Structure to design on (156 residues):
């Protein structure tokens, strides 16, 4: 009866499910960037007016890319999995991911303001806190153990 009510227990060494892990990591990266830029723009308002401020589209895209890639990259290097690509190809793919992520993030700054609007600092802070709470709920609901900020790393 207890197993039916509480559900089956997952082995600690078993990897987290991909999509909940992707959502969790994406929300955390969105949270980090929202809070970071919200605080930066409060502390230094000129940073938002001068140069190329970071808009919401940049932050969303960064969160989505991080969310999709962060659960996949450790799996690419998991020694317990059978891999169809050589180690060097997997390393190259990981490097290409990081470079593409950086290029896309900084390239978004050149989008017109209508496509990449910059939010007020307080709105970014509020959104950052809300997505942080959302990430916490995803972690609790899916019992994630191996993602960003889970408290338990994938040690074998």
């Amino acid at each position: 009866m207890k197993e039916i009510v509480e559900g089956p227990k997952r082995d600690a060494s078993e990897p987290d499910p991909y999509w909940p892990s992707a959502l969790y990591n994406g929300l955390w990266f969105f949270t980090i960037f929202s809070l970071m830029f919200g605080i930066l723009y409060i502390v230094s308002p000129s940073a938002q007016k001068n140069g190329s401020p970071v808009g919401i589209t940049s932050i969303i895209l960064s969160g989505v890319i991080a969310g999709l890639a962060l659960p996949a990259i450790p799996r690419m290097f998991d020694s317990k999995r059978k891999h169809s690509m050589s180690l060097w190809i997997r390393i190259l793919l990981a490097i290409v991911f990081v470079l593409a992520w950086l290029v896309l993030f900084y390239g978004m700054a050149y989008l017109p303001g209508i496509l990449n609007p910059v939010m007020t600092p307080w709105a970014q802070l509020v959104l950052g806190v809300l997505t942080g709470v959302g990430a916490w709920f995803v972690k609790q609901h899916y019992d994630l153990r191996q993602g960003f900020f889970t408290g338990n790393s994938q040690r074998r």
